[in-house]
Design a protein that fits this description.
By secondary structure, the protein is an alpha/beta fold. It has 20 helices and 14 strands. The protein folds into four domains: 121 residues, Rossmann fold (3-Layer(aba) Sandwich), CATH 3.40.50.10190; 86 residues, DNA polymerase beta, N-terminal domain-like (DNA polymerase, domain 1, Orthogonal Bundle), CATH 1.10.150.110; 52 residues, DNA polymerase, domain 1 (Orthogonal Bundle), CATH 1.10.150.20; 212 residues, Beta Polymerase, domain 2 (2-Layer Sandwich), CATH 3.30.460.10. The site of one manganese (II) ion has 4 residues, from loops.
Length: 491
């Protein structure tokens, strides 16, 4: 392991004397004096501050959590409303139990229904607006999307910005799409979108047009744009990214046949396989096919070392019916065994004659070089990107083939990664996705917790130590986040 220390002090331990720096930037508490009394309020304020919480002396717009000892909505709410705060509906109004739980754990515990002091008047007149977080890792997003009409449009805009290397607006549309995907129903008016986070002027203008006309003219213009269409076509080939696509387009190439006929273009191995198996690997992989691939790899792994474990991850773990590939993690119980495991699996697949393509990347992971402050997207574990030949006879429900295709096999893209066992939880969390969920987990860790998260580890910058985890739940706990199930991470 990484010479890690266990994290927290024993529960309930109080150290009022030592003043710690602010740790939880997204939580600003106000303690209501009524019923609590002045001296208890002052004691609780000091206690919380000593644990790194921000406690405001006055009720203001910046307060996020109002805590009251008085559980009576009938006395608390009229008083709160009289304060004439503009953003009252955005504040959590909580029972003292949330505060004591948070003091006990030394971090803000997730708000549960039992903590809430609800305004009985708003409850009957209109359902309290559920707070939607700006962070995808604080939202539950299942596979069903009630706002596809908007999110499809946003994704076209985001992709178009990506092709122009305009990261800011690209991310803004991805964030907006992600927020709408988490909603339990369709947005039917701009007013309903008013209090949602991450929706800027441009986004709202697109939504307004779609609400009014059923479509966005800006999106339609992009979709019919020759450059967009060509870049979209080229990047659909395995191994061709936006840079290469752009290069080909600039040279006047517009179709696959033009690319393939151009003698000065040198395709790398990945791109060659991408073109060779284009029909198959551009067609979605079904859940049954993913299961069959899992079984094939599992048999290979078991023949090599019986104590190894194979875990399905990526989109299929999030409950998706179809995916563009199959993502699998393989771990060995024996430390160091993961170093050669992938090469041996690859050999076995080769011997079976089902390996159509393989790009293997040996591990560059080095615990002695931690903490690494380059918490980039790509991880350092041993991994391989494969194309496998999948026989129809191996698939329960038969192959997901193109119409008129009489072959009894198809090519499938497979990603395999092999982390050391004590980093499994981080790898699982990182490879389960979605990409937007991962991005926001990292952003949340960095901005709200002063921690660095990636596929290898979680580093607490305040304590200057790594936090260990054997399950994904451990990682959510370290981050002070409510656990989000894999099928709720389709952000
Ligand atoms: N990932 C990663 N490092 C890589 C490759 C992928 O961390 N070298 C992560 C991605 O961030 C993503 C997850 O692995 O969260 C799955 O990647 P991918 O297969 O591209 O996406 P899916 O969500 O599985 O979508 P699909 O169903 O289309 O395959
Ligand atoms: Mn995938
Ligand atoms: Mn993948």
């Amino acid at each position: 392991m990484l010479g890690l220390r266990k994290r927290s002090k024993p529960a309930g331990e109080v150290s009022v004397s030592r003043r710690e720096e602010t740790k939880f930037r997204d939580v600003r508490i106000f303690l209501v004096e009524r019923k609590m009394g002045r001296s208890r309020r002052s004691f609780l304020t000091q206690l919380a501050r000593s644990k790194g919480f921000t406690v405001e002396d006055f009720l203001s717009e910046t307060v996020t959590h109002v805590v009251s000892e008085d559980r009576q909505p009938s006395s608390l709410w009229p008083w709160l409303k009289a304060s004439s705060l503009r953003n009252l509906s955005m504040k959590q109004v909580l029972d003292i139990s949330w505060f004591t739980d948070s003091m006990r754990d030394g971090r803000p515990v997730p708000v549960e229904t039992r903590h809430l002091i609800q305004d009985s008047w708003t409850e009957v007149s209109s359902p309290a607006p559920a707070m939607v977080s700006q962070y995808a890792c604080k939202r539950r997003t299942e596979t069903e999307n009630h706002n596809k009409m908007f999110t499809d449009a946003f994704e076209v805009l985001a992709e178009n910005y990506e092709f122009s290397e305009m990261e800011g607006p690209c991310l803004a549309f991805r964030r907006a799409a992600s927020v709408l995907k988490s909603l339990p129903s369709a947005v039917e008016s701009l007013r309903a979108a008013q209090d949602l986070p991450c929706l800027g002027e441009h986004t709202k203008a697109v939504m307004e047009e779609i609400l009014r006309c059923g479509r966005s003219f800006e999106v339609e213009k992009i979709l019919s744009d020759e450059r967009f269409q060509t870049l979209k076509l080229f990047t659909s080939v395995f191994g061709v990214g936006p840079k290469t696509a752009e290069k080909w387009h600039r040279r006047g190439l517009r179709s696959f046949s033009e690319v393939l006929a151009e003698p000065s273009i040198h395709l790398n191995r990945m791109q060659q396989s991408g073109f060779l198996h284009y029909g198959d690997i551009s067609r979605a992989v079904s859940k049954a096919e993913a299961r069959a691939v899992g079984n094939i790899i599992d048999e290979a792994v078991r023949a090599i070392t019986p104590d190894a474990m194979l875990t399905l991850t990526g989109g299929f773990r999030r409950g998706k019916e179809f995916g563009h590939d199959v993502d699998l993690i393989v771990t060995a119980a024996e430390p160091g065994r993961e170093q050669n495991l992938l090469s041996e699996i690859i050999d076995s697949l080769k011997k079976q004659g089902i390996l159509l393509f393989c790009e293997y990347q040996a591990s560059t992971f080095d615990t002695t070089k931690l903490p690494s402050h380059r918490f980039e997207a790509m991880d350092h574990f041993a991994k391989c990107f494969l194309i496998l030949r999948l026989e129809g006879s191996r698939v329960d429900e038969g192959l997901h083939s193109a119409e008129g295709d009489s072959r009894n096999w198809r090519a499938v893209r497979v990603d395999l990664v092999s982390p050391p066992a004590d980093h499994f939880a981080f790898t699982l969390l990182g490879w389960t996705g979605s990409r937007q969920f991962e991005r926001d987990l990292r952003r949340f860790a960095r901005l709200e917790r002063r921690m660095l998260l990636d596929n290898h580890a979680l580093f607490d910058k305040t304590k200057k130590e790594f936090l260990t985890a054997t399950t994904e739940k451990d990682i959510f706990d370290h981050l002070g986040l409510e656990y989000i199930e894999p099928w709720q991470r389709n952000a």
